[in-house]
Design goal:
Layout (H helix, E strand, L loop, with lengths): L1 H31 L3 E6 L4 H14 L4 E4 L5 H12 L6 E5 L8 H8 L3 E4 L7 H4 L2 H13 L6 E5 L3 H4 L8 E6 L6 E9 L2 E9 L2 E7 L7 H13 L4 H8 L8 E6 L5 E5 L5 H13 L5 E5 L10 H13 L2 E5 L10 H5 L3 E4 L2 H11 L5 E5 L7 H5 L18 H4 L9 H21 L6
Parallel strand pairs: 1-3, 1-4, 2-3, 4-5, 5-6, 6-7, 11-15, 12-13, 12-15, 13-14
Antiparallel strand pairs: 7-8, 8-9, 10-11
Helix pairs in contact: 1-3, 2-8, 2-9, 10-11
InterPro entries: Mur-like_cat_sf (IPR036565), Mur_ligase_C (IPR004101), Mur_ligase_C_dom_sf (IPR036615), Mur_ligase_cen (IPR013221), MurCDEF_CellWall_CoF430Synth (IPR051046)
Keywords: ATP-binding, Ligase, Nucleotide-binding
GO molecular function: acid-amino acid ligase activity; ATP binding
């Protein structure tokens, strides 16, 4: 026991020393960079805002790096050390996530942003924050980190975000549907298969925008990125043309069309409670020969299992069939009549859902896959174009199946494959040093 404790202590010392060295290197990289650093935070919309803003800035011939999807302090340190160090980026756009109280402070201190964008405040990570006020307080840290010549871009429609303008020591620009917004959004429309359209009004200008998104609620992150790009000098013409070709990120309301089969909307990256009705409303506005909703795991939320029952009542009004999958599938409280006539199906695993969909699919029907990431419901859609052989129900990976890249490999073979990858990478490094090829 003493030996085990000693080994653990030594390992912790090594890890701590390695972390401090990497943190020092990251701070040096940040200090030596001439880029404009932009931090994006909010309970939802961070990834889309970050990616689109980088896309718009690049359209203005800027050299841009974006740190997206993985938004922890560890990821930021790695990005600064490996990508930003000794580079000539004009802009660095980074997601800033909040996993709990005190998590944004170290990231803001390291990032030292000149621009901060806040999309919204919602009660995500309920077990860590408990109240909206706590979430807002944590998000505000990024705004407070701005210098006096910095720029805060805030969603004025959200009272918690709007309040961040009070006491801000830098210039504040607001956007939203409210009349008092510096950039006012109007005429928001979307209904799949039609794209999302909206207008932006500021000063004496009006800009009509179109984006290939299936849901109208995406106006918020798209507007946040648009306003930021305009404030940073990108022309309205470039913004409009670049937005027209910008597609949703993987597993974030991504449209996935199969040849001769159904069309999927994959929304499986996260499923906080506030997003459930938004996704259902998207389906109610969509036009298709048949509409089905597959609902998996709702993310960390306040309240009881009644949330699943409430979601079912909304979903059954928007779709011809609702399928619940996973450990909470029994919480729908669907009536016996809906069960008997097929309006509702309760299925235990994603693999069984995939098999059921393949048996009953109609060409051109629209199927929404909505769940938190742990179920990896995207496999239901991927199975139409790939030989999906990994149907593990609890793989423990937060990344999507395509990011993992092993969904065509049985789960029990993942570890040997990963070890083989590391071996190949190690030999690649040695080959560069010695000029030898790795053994077959």
């Amino acid at each position: 026991m003493v030996v085990v404790k000693l080994k653990l202590a030594l390992r912790n010392i090594r890890h701590g020393a390695r972390y401090r060295v990497r943190l020092y290197r990251a701070k040096r990289a940040r200090a030596n960079s001439g880029a404009t650093f932009i931090g994006v935070t909010g309970s939802s919309g961070k990834s889309t805002t970050t990616t689109l803003l980088a896309h718009l800035l690049a359209g203005g011939h800027a050299f841009v790096y974006s740190q997206v999807l993985v938004n922890s302090i560890t990821a930021l340190i790695s990005a600064l050390c490996k990508r930003v160090n000794n580079s000539n980026f004009d802009y660095v756009v980074s997601e800033v996530g909040a996993r709990g109280k005190g998590s944004i402070g170290p990231m803001a201190e390291l990032l030292r942003p000149s621009v901060a964008i806040v999309t919204m405040v919602r009660l995500e990570h309920f077990s860590n924050f408990r109240t909206l006020e706590n979430v807002a307080e944590e998000k505000r840290v990024l705004v407070d980190a701005l210098p006096s010549d910095g720029l805060a871009i805030l969603n004025v429609d959200d009272p918690y975000v709007k309040a961040m303008a009070v006491g801000a020591k830098c210039r504040v620009v607001t956007f939203g549907m409210s009349d008092g917004a510096d950039y006012r959004i109007s005429d928001v429309r979307a209904g799949y298969p039609d794209p999302l359209t909206f207008k932006v009004h500021w000063k004496q200008n009006t800009l009509a925008l179109t984006a290939p998104f299936p849901a109208d609620y995406f106006w918020l992150p798209l507007a946040a990125a648009t306003v930021s790009a305009l404030e940073l000098g990108v022309s309205p013409e470039i913004v409009a043309s670049r937005l027209e070709t910008f597609l949703p990120l993987q597993n974030r309301c991504e449209v996935f069309v199969t040849e001769g089969g159904p069309e999927f909307i994959i929304d499986t990256a996260k499923a906080p409670w506030h997003s459930i009705n938004l996704a259902i409303d998207m389906m109610s506005k969509a036009a298709a020969r048949r509409k089905r909703i597959v609902l998996g795991q709702i993310s960390d939320y306040a309240g009881s299992s009644r949330k699943y029952a409430a979601a079912y009542q909304s979903a059954r009004e928007a779709a011809d069939q609702v399928i619940y999958v996973g450990d909470n599938a029994h919480r729908s409280r669907a009536g016996q009549a809906d069960r008997d006539n097929g309006r509702f199906r309760e299925i235990r695993s994603p693999k069984e859902v995939s098999e059921f969909i393949k048996q009953t699919a109609l060409p051109g029907e629209l199927i929404l896959l909505k769940s938190s990431a742990n179920l990896h419901l995207e496999r239901v859609a991927l199975s139409w174009t790939h030989d999906v052989r990994c149907w593990e129900t609890a793989c423990g990976k937060e990344e999507g199946c395509r990011a993992c890249g092993l969904y065509e490999v049985p789960f029990e073979q993942h570890r040997p494959r990963l070890l083989q990858r590391r071996r190949v990478r190690r030999w690649e490094f040695i080959r560069h040093l010695l000029g030898r090829r790795p053994p077959l």
